[in-house]
């Protein structure tokens, strides 16, 4: 794509000013590049911003999925940036969404990022040219839309905006109310109602715990091989997957039938990049964003990177690590492999995933235990600083507790003692 040597390119466009976008902006600036972040909202923070706004119509987009009363399912000790941890003055480890938002604001202030962020500026189209990128930015304040040209693109628009609604027989026949968890905000809406919640991931379990306090009864439908702990939820009944909906409820795959007033689909999200033109060279099939090298660099146009696609990871740390990894190539400190080499590595890695029982494209960016090898690979390839061992140990200690110890796991306080060790004690 580019004729100019990559290390002579300077201008960086960051799409989004959430956790990933702030990291991309900060690290690019520290490398001496000319970076600007565009944020369509009125403030920084991305998905951590709470808003009770609901869509006006089917075409209206609500960006944030944040709901009232959310507390993190990871301790703040693993949620900070490598060079900017959460303040130890915050006593609890599992903090509120507002505390996360305040932390992101303090990060932006500490590294003087605000002068480089344009709020209420929406990137509506990105397309490659011969030697750079054409970026059309809609200035919502002045209602203008003009092209701006950049050498590098960081796509940091998050992936909690476009709901992944399941297709279940009879959904259109059901006469009760249905929403996706993306639009769930407050539990009191379900007071004295009977509710079906579909999905037992982090959001499904947490929303179940919120709603059951107000609801008359909650049915939790899922297909987890190990049964989540709901013994402390007296009015929650676990059910298998829904076979089909009826007018007043559903028949489940075990043949049982229940009636309910509301359905909350906690079924995940689509990866969506509506601002990218087709000639960017990226396609998304069942949440498999391809072709990407190391889950971030666009193989067809390698001056574009996607930050934050892997899941079941240490979010903030992997965002920061991916940015630092890509910047080693963008500043000429490391040389990118050829397109053929990158494609071969992608094919090899995906082949290993399918062979290990991950044939589902929706799990193409899932990490879990693989994340630790991934961090080592990025660090060894470019010489960037790896995630500290204590963070990895903390992460392992917290794994899956939102399913099996939901009533108690937040009642502990972690403390990082050094790069290798941590302490854990009851509140």
From TrEMBL:
One Pfam family it belongs to: FMO-like
SUPFAM superfamilies (UniProt xref): FAD/NAD(P)-binding domain (SSF51905)
Cofactor(s) this protein requires: FAD
EC number: 1.-.-.-
GO terms, molecular function: flavin adenine dinucleotide binding; N,N-dimethylaniline monooxygenase activity; NADP binding
Enzyme class per UniProt: oxidoreductase
Superkingdom per UniProt: Eukaryota
Keywords: FAD, Flavoprotein, Monooxygenase, NADP, Oxidoreductase
Annotated family: Belongs to the FMO family.
Name of the protein described by the UniProt record: Flavin-containing monooxygenase
Species this chain originates from: Drosophila grimshawi (Hawaiian fruit fly)
Gene: Dgri\GH22902
